[in-house]
Amino acid sequence: MSNNTAYLVGFMGSGKSTILKLIKEKTEINTMDLDDLVEAENSESIDNIFEKFGEDFFRLEEEKSFKKIQNMPRTVISLGGGSLVSDSIRNTVQESENSFYLRNEFRNLWKYIKNSDRPLVELGEVEVMKIYNQRLQSYEQCKNMIDMSKCSPQEASRLIITQLGWA
Questions:
Q1: Is 142 helix (H, G, I), strand (E, B) or coil?
Q2: Domain assignment present for 37
Q3: How many domains is the chain built from?
Q4: Are the C-beta atoms of residues 46 and 58 closer than 8 Å to each other?
Q5: Beta-bridge partners for 76
Q6: Rounded CA separation 50/121 (Å)
Q7: pLDDT tens across 32-59, in order?
Q8: How far, CA to CA in Å, does 132 sit from each of 16, 22, 23, 41, 123?
Q9: For the chain, where are the E strands, in sequence order?
Q10: b/e map of 30-64 (b: 16 or more CB within 10 Å)?
């Protein structure tokens, strides 16, 4: 495992993609979105992968894609909200000093995602909250936590850049 790879984790709507984009705009740091890589390698959108093949297939593809990029030097990788379901992804991320959990309360996250076309949102608020609660412990094992209820994506990106010291 490389100390020169950083990971952004958090539930759907936590700001991972937005923060990744800000880091890319502000620095020369390499950035990758794991969901984008899964889509490119399967020539399908995440929605289509879920619809055609199911979540189990998606998680296998996600793990394969992660293994290809997990040790890229000076790279910040945004992981999907459910990526830590995978033991190998979770172990790698939790061992990294450069893992960042973008924390927020479920009620705030639900406001951001409830009208989106994300595959799990169609299950409804109660079921999505159960998923959030199931994933919480894995998120909380990250070495760094940023409370997104108290900080903007711009502030979070600055905190991450500073913490990494790569810029």
A1: coil
A2: yes
A3: 1
A4: yes
A5: 6, 31
A6: 13
A7: 999 999 999 999 998 899 889 998 999 9
A8: 15, 25, 26, 27, 13
A9: 5-9, 30-33, 75-78, 99-103, 144-147
A10: bbbbbbebbbeebebebeebbeeeeeeebbebbbe
Burial class (CB in 10 A: 0-12, 13-18, 19+), 27: middle
Q: Which two tokens stand for residue 90?
A: 């979770």
pLDDT per position as a tens digit, 57-92: 999 999 999 999 999 999 999 999 999 999 999 999
Which has the closest alpha carbon to 109: 41, 14, 1, 16? 14
Question: Which DSSP helix (H) or strand (E) runs through 91?
Answer: helix 87-95
> What is the extent of the structural domain holding 18?
5-151
User: What token pair was written down for 75?
Assistant: 């790279």
pLDDT at 119 over 80: no
- Spacing of C-alpha 43 from chain mean position: 20
Q: What is the CATH number of the domain that holds 14?
A: 3.40.50.300
The two structure tokens encoding residue 117? 């076309």
